[in-house]
């Protein structure tokens, strides 16, 4: 192993904290964040006290439940740039001024888009501090046609719409989708959407 490889392997992974009192919600959000933010370590906490003991300085960002932020405003106000507030409402008038917010009461596909948009808007050059999903260009060797199908899936198209747009048979679309899921090891539309955006196969504004 050369010195450059050693330095890369020794470099600690950036950390993200999720602070929520609801155990089921925290598990679900961690799974989504793990898909969207590949290359980051995600730690979870059920209380503010546990999070504070771990040390806020360790974390690149914290995703924190709205009520926990309110109860500990003196702390989070001075950490506004790091804090993403998990709100129960998408209404801008019901969100905390000066903080980035994400509504968690929405369909999974929309929540994934919100997280991706947050990364695009909240960081220089529109990128989260994460690696490419696989680290190399088209690592799973998707064909050009499979990439076209993947991009349309990420845009919310159903099989018939994909067939019509690409002027191919419906059975061919189904075959391409089967190949894509096998090559990538991803079955859900949300995971495929994240992969497509993170690898530049579709513009986030089109999903």
Can you characterise this structure?
The protein is α/β, with parallel strands linked by helices and 207 residues long. The chain has 10 helices and 5 strands. It has helices at 3-10, 23-36, 48-54, 66-71, 73-77, 108-122, 144-154, 159-166, 170-184, 189-198, and strands at residues 15-19, 41-45, 61-65, 83-87, 100-103. α6 (108-122) packs parallel to α10, α7 (144-154) crosses α10 (189-198) and α8 packs across α9. The longest helix is centred in the middle third of the chain and has 15 residues, at 108-122. The radius of gyration is 19 Å and the shape is elongated. Mean pLDDT is 82; it is low at 4-10 and 122-136.
List the helices and strands and how they pair.
Layout: H1 3-10, E1 15-19, H2 23-36, E2 41-45, H3 48-54, E3 61-65, H4 66-71, H5 73-77, E4 83-87, E5 100-103, H6 108-122, H7 144-154, H8 159-166, H9 170-184, H10 189-198
Helix pairs in contact: 6-10, 7-9, 7-10, 8-9
| Oligomeric nature of the chains | single chain
Arrangement of strands in the largest sheet: 2-1-3-4-5
Class inferred from helices and paired strands: alpha/beta
Return the string of H and E elements. Answer: HEHEHEHHEEHHHHH
Q: Quick one: biggest sheet? A: 5 strands, parallel
Number of helices: 10
Mean pLDDT: 82
Low-confidence stretches: 4-10, 122-136
- Please estimate the helix content: 40-55%
In short:
By secondary structure, this protein is an alpha/beta fold.
